[in-house]
Amino acid sequence: MTEISIIMSVYNGEEYLEETIQSVINQTFKNWEFIIINDCSTDSTAQILEDFASKDERIKVYPNEVNLKLPASLNKAISLSQGKYIARMDADDICLPDRFEKQYKFMEENSDVALSSCRFMTVKNGVYMSGGAGGRCDNQALRALLLVRNPILHPGVIAKAEVMKKLNYDTSLTCTEDLELWTRMSLENQKMEILPECLMIYRLHDKQITSTTLERQHTEVLKIQEKYYGTLLQKMDEKMAQFYINGIYFTETVDIERFLEYSKWLKSVCSTNFDKNSINYALLEVLAEYKRCGAPKQAVLKAMLTFNPFFLAKEIIRRKQAAKKDIEKCLKVAKGLSLKQTAGTKEFPIFEK
Q1: Which pTM was predicted?
Q2: Could you tell me if residue 158 is inside a domain?
Q3: Contacts of 278 (CB under 8 A, 6+ apart)
């Protein structure tokens, strides 16, 4: 029996494709199949895929007759999969050699978890940084974070095949299909966690969907969150929704006074569906992003003073300790891969002096 079905859709991915596929072949875990959907590429993608498939029978390539886009192509891959678990991969990222060995072990040892992702390193223009260092990994925190952002690395996911085959991706969405799936899983009480191990190198570049479709992302995120908020809390009014999309989810607008209004409202409606500390944690993550985006120090301090001081002190200590461990793991990975251009290690500037 195949244990892991790795699914990927690619469109004109020749630049990084060989390195990506080779990182899967190099895995210490060997019981996998790699289902790749070629979504009508016009570059040398088809030839690259054919060459790899001819050398390794675990690599299975399926060309689309018409361009289906990512969600529909992933659903096609899911329908073709035979594994106990389904893992995601993108055509421009790199798996570290022990990714699937560690993720498979984690899922086997935590049978109540439907989906998990992992820590990662980002790379852009040859500079590497740790991703998500210090963040909470538990289901309660992820459910709360989904109210304010997408905390789950899509290409780093592994999930129970039965869950993925039941839910699938929403094909009406073009660039936020992962957020929609995570929120739908949360609404169905499917447990999600993050394995705090650095197992991926996530490539950042200007050709990514996330860099080219911001207006469409705004529309789709609001649609998704209208359902998530409306089911678990209450729907935002139009004024709140507009601030939310610009000032909370994407933090294009840094406005501490509006943040405090949103924070007060969110705390008042979280009721029994969310752990209060997890809501505070999610809000603190937004405030940290405000600090990164240049919000005045005094304004950030004013917002911090609205949190329970015992929670705040405890979270500062937890975050710093966790971030130190996560960064050490990433630096160890960087050293093992001989990565020389590594950015600084200050991961949570809200807590800097």
Answers
A1: 0.93
A2: no
A3: 136, 140, 141, 143, 144
